[in-house]
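so my prof wants the structure for this chain in the tokens format not the other one, which i didnt know existed until like an hour ago. anyway here's the sequence
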Amino acid sequence: MKNKRSSLLLLILLLVVSMFLAACAGGGDDSASDSDSGKDDGNQGEEGTTDGGGEGGDLILAVLSDASSLDPAGSNDVPSSNIQANIFETLVNRNDDNEIEPGLATEWNAIDDTTWEFKLQEGVTFHDGEAFTADAVKKSLDRVRDPEIASPRFFLFEMIESVDVVDDYTVQIKTAYPFAPLLAHLSHNGGSIISPKSIDEDYAAMENGEEPGSVISENPVGTGYFKFESWNPGSEIKLTKNEDYWNEPAKVDSVTFKVVPEAATRVAELETGNAHIIDPVQPNEVQQINDSGNGTVHQKPSSSLSYIGFNTEKEPFNDVRVRQAISMLVNKDDIISGVYEGFGIPAKGPLAPGIFGYNEDAKPLEYNVEEAKKLLEEAGYADGFSTTIWTNDNPQRVDAAVLLQQELKAVGIDVQIEQMEFGTYLDQTAAGEHDMFILGWSNPTGDADYGMYALFHSSQKGDPGNRSFYENPEVDKLLDEGRQETDPDARTEIYNKVQEHLIEDAPMVYIHHQEYLTGLANGVEGFDIDTSGIYQLKNVTLSE
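here's what i got, hopefully its the right format
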């Protein structure tokens, strides 16, 4: 009997060890080392499903670009947001159907046209042990609006006049005017709630001459289901599971974001088991991955826009005829089929279908070489001119730049392509040092205000989003009206007019609304990516 018991115990032990090894499988290095921009819905199951998956393990992502800042008020790019969204939480969340759901706020109501009251979740603590209360909400939202912080996300909350603490778990937000998409804006991770202690330490560092966000970006402290562990800039960022998370915890033990700029290397990382998720997958790699037996490509329609921008303050792009001409020389179908392998749809203007305010009747500038030549002749550039186009290290953008270079050469426009690292690219386009450039804009709020205010309002030139340095008083006026109008039909009418102006003025060439393409290794379950390109990692599980 004793021998049978020993054999049984040995068998159980072997099974436990086997299950543990399976949960941790993946082939990646899980040691702590420290740490765009182009992204898709395969048959990986609904978000949150765990069929075939187990909890635990170290999730490894190979991504194109590093974060520029881990401070939610310190950046407005997708690579940074993808890290921040796992560490911090917001008062409310937005799902893919543009519905607002509870986050750190359990309920909310409009007291009047300019006052909203939020009831807060109790029993929540920050990663540093600080209690989450209404004071934390006030400090965070006051900070992102503080001129000394100079947040590129200020535009999201500039309509807020005051944040008032009613009691420990009740807060009121008052706006200077009725602002219809306030809840959508509060779902943006620019409205992340940061540890009050961390905020105090950051302000203290500023008094000692440090840059805003120096403390928060180096050690971000939120209430999210993952905690910050380390960042080796240019290499990797590591997060670990928040064991004390107030809600349903994450499934995996840690997440490592490895910066892998080369597309072929990312695919190799997936196929050799050194990464569980790779992003982005290049369109011409989709079939290879799906046929490899090692993984599949997750496809997701996006609310994002890919575009070619002009610096409208520089000659010759300060002439609308030149901008219109180049818009007519861009064959969007060729770019979508040749560069993106058909993944995505042509853009009429800046907004994607499904975004509130999208103008279905908008008439885009069509591909027309002869009309483009006439416009260039009228503008005094019948013989063309020389210019540059900038792009970051996204291969699709580089390929699109080459196609544009070839198209423009046919009409005498000589284009030099300059490629640079993503962070440098953002800094220099924000400073207005470019002629033309290729970039994208996601829409995490699902509203026309976000899709156009930051990109085209003259108050948003540079880092906030208006890298075209575009200015039109009528567009400014309409965008301001759209922010303050509460009637949905009237707002739609306003934004329809804005889109007509933007197509006519052509501050950018609106290329397409892409599909996000993300490679998933076999055994990855529960992954999703939202329509603005933010990974949903809470419910991811790993198995053999």
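also thought this was worth mentioning. Residues 1-52 have pLDDT under 50 and may be disordered.
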